[in-house]
Write a structure and sequence with these properties.
Number of helices: 5
Number of strands: 5
Radius of gyration: 13 Å
Strand content: 25-35%
Strand order of the largest sheet: 3-2-1-4-5
Structural class: alpha/beta
Largest sheet: 5 strands, mixed
Order of helices and strands: EHHEHEHEEH
Length: 110
Amino acid sequence: LKGKALLVEFFHSANTQCRERVEEVNRLAHTYNNILNVAVVAREPVEQVVDILLHQYQYAYVALDEQGALFAQYEVPHVPYALLLSERGEVLWLGNPTHLKAETIEQLLD
């Protein structure tokens, strides 16, 4: 994951908005693959999310945070929630990913 910015989307399988974001997350990961890694993080047991995370996300990395360490570190208030990190790990943007537009990503990473 080094050498690129990172978009992290926090996910929960029971959340309709999270499930509806699959196509957009795949599009962002594919479109910006030269400058951006995309990861989806779920705070659920693997049995609950394996089909969704491993079979629907074609271009994004997937991770489980069953203990909630990342959720706590970034004080995730709700899902869906996302943060955009620079190559150096600086938080460039955070919030509801439905409000993060491609133009914003391009401006922040320029």
